[in-house]
Amino acid sequence: MNNLELRSKILKLKEEKQAIILAHNYQTLPVQQIADFTGDSLQLSRVAAELKQEMVVFCGVQFMAETAKLLKPSAKVLLPVKSAGCPMADMITGEQLRQFKAQYQDPVVVCYVNSSIEVKAESDICCTSGNVIKVINSIPTEKQILFVPDRNLGSYAAQQTGRNIILWQGFCNVHENITEADILEVKSKYPEYKLIVHPECRPEVVEMADFAASTKGMIDYVKDHDKVIVGTETGLFYQLQDKYPEKKLAPISERNICVNMKKTHLEDVLRSLQQEEFEINIDADIAERALRSVENMLRIK
Ligand code: 13P
Ligand code: SF4
Fold it and tell me: Is the whole-model pTM more than 0.70?
């Protein structure tokens, strides 16, 4: 089947089943184009919280589909490819977090949304790259803050808020792989371009950028600038190139690919709708505790 046939089958079945398709900004372009809504983690969480549909096909990675299920528990939330995970989310377990917390006196635990349900359940408040600064600023200044799992986002938040934050040493291998040498190389090719990066990049890389933000923040920046080097996973670059063919855009490097975000194809979306797989199920007790940390985040405007 070609993409046109796949698209028309998906749209027909989606209509019949009254489903909604959500996609993250790193998905492949054909998947983003079939989605009802494409966005960053924060936007996708807010959309999930307001959903009317009782079937959601979530084109992203597991923690994103789980967050949607937490926020809309009555819905059947489907992750088209079961193995689409986030290696950074697996860098800390619930047990490791309990041991980490036990070393401090009544700390506030902030977990990046890129984390397991168990870790969210052990945390006080969740955050995304889109709201991390507001989340940290909402914590009373006398409190000790622990941040898991991403050391780079945590150090960006510490630098932006002036707070002392104790970091778990997790990282995203896709963003960690962006080096100062990559920047020097791309900057030498495009000296007059602005450089924007995701705060999952190393601190020294963020330091060299003109702007750091979530994928939505990066999209907003490109709306207002004509020459930009895009420092994140390639999915965002291809979306921006498609949206703004008149702008001069360059990827920081074409090897910044999140293999998990690229596992979902139109065939998978169709199969997911046909067979209603793979359904996200979360144990009720753990869901209640994990939801609390996600809701604490969403209360912050
Ligand atoms: P955003 O929330 O900025 O889209 O980032 C999600 C993510 O997984 C980045 O690697
Ligand atoms: Fe996880 Fe990195 Fe992929 Fe985002 S880009 S889903 S943080 S591995």
Answer: yes
